[in-house]
Specification:
The protein is mainly alpha-helical. The protein has 15 helices and no strands.
Length: 278
């Protein structure tokens, strides 16, 4: 199961190639915008580093495309991506804002997802995703496919302090056909912090039946500890440790950002120490 998640990350974040679009279907042939589109996409397959995301040649090509067609959203998006990955958010933001300005439905969900995942900008993510929902019924997932935007919306409400709204959205989303690997985990963590331990325990057990990563076992151990069930608390914290050592965890290491509610080895080891000491 963990391999599936990492494949998604490699394909959708790590790739050097840009998603191909049909320039002929979008723009009038030989128009400036058609040439800009061809420059960003079709030429990238044959001209070496000009097709490598973030390379100087690629950025220059984006600038040329923007000069030809200042309203071509994709050129701003392609130019923005490497700045986001490098953490140069002040450079990324004006570029992605231009992409959103010229293709709101195409890019506002991407911007909202990135605002939460990279910056934990809950208010900004809520504004973007709620606006997207007024424009289309199909809001899709974030840039790497790991989270549906409904899950990001819920976590953004939690980030702003609205825990009940987060729980409401996550519960509804989990019942949909778009539920993902981590949705139940984040619901369980949110219920835990709301001290709704029985609900949290139930949903986290559902999570480990789908994808048994260390972080979910860790929170189950905390719940059992709060419920004064030391036997189960020790069992689950030890399982958390085993899974962590085997790299079966929520993504976040060697990545562009930590996923929300990520648990680290030091937390697991501290909990083992506390439980064994009692």
């Amino acid at each position: 199961m963990k391999k599936i998640v990492f494949v998604f990350i490699f394909i959708l974040i790590g790739t050097n190639c840009f998603t191909q679009i049909n320039c002929d279907a979008v723009f009038e042939k030989d128009s400036p915008c058609h040439r800009a589109c061809e420059m960003c996409y079709n030429d990238a397959k044959t001209q070496g580093r000009s097709g490598v995301q973030g390379a100087r040649e690629s950025q220059i090509k984006c600038d040329s495309a923007i000069s030809l067609c200042p309203t071509f959203a994709d050129a701003y998006y392609i130019k923005a991506i490497p700045y986001l990955k490098r953490g140069e958010f002040l450079t990324w933001k004006p570029l992605i804002d231009k992409a959103v300005e010229y293709d709101t439905v195409g890019y506002i969900g991407y911007r909202g997802g990135a605002r939460f995942m990279f910056l934990r900008d809950g208010e900004g993510a809520i504004a973007d995703i709620e606006l997207l929902k007024t424009k289309t019924d199909i809001i899709g997932s974030i840039y790497n496919g790991d989270y549906h935007l409904n899950c990001i919306l819920a976590l953004s409400y939690r980030e702003t302090g609205d825990t009940l709204k987060c729980i409401e959205i996550l519960k509804k989303h989990i019942q949909s056909d778009n539920s993902g690997f981590f949705d139940r985990y984040h619901l369980g963590v949110t219920l835990f912090h709301a001290k709704r331990f029985d609900e949290a325990k139930e949903i986290l057990h559902q999570q480990i039946n789908i994808y048994p990563f260390a972080d979910a076992y860790y929170y189950l151990a905390l719940i059992y500890s709060y419920l004064s069930d030391k036997h189960n608390a020790l069992e689950y914290i030890q399982k958390a440790h085993v899974q962590y050592i085997n790299d079966i965890t929520l993504p976040g290491w060697n990545s562009y950002m930590d996923y929300p509610d990520k648990v680290y080895l030091k937390q697991i080891e501290n909990e083992i120490f506390c439980l064994q000491k009692d």
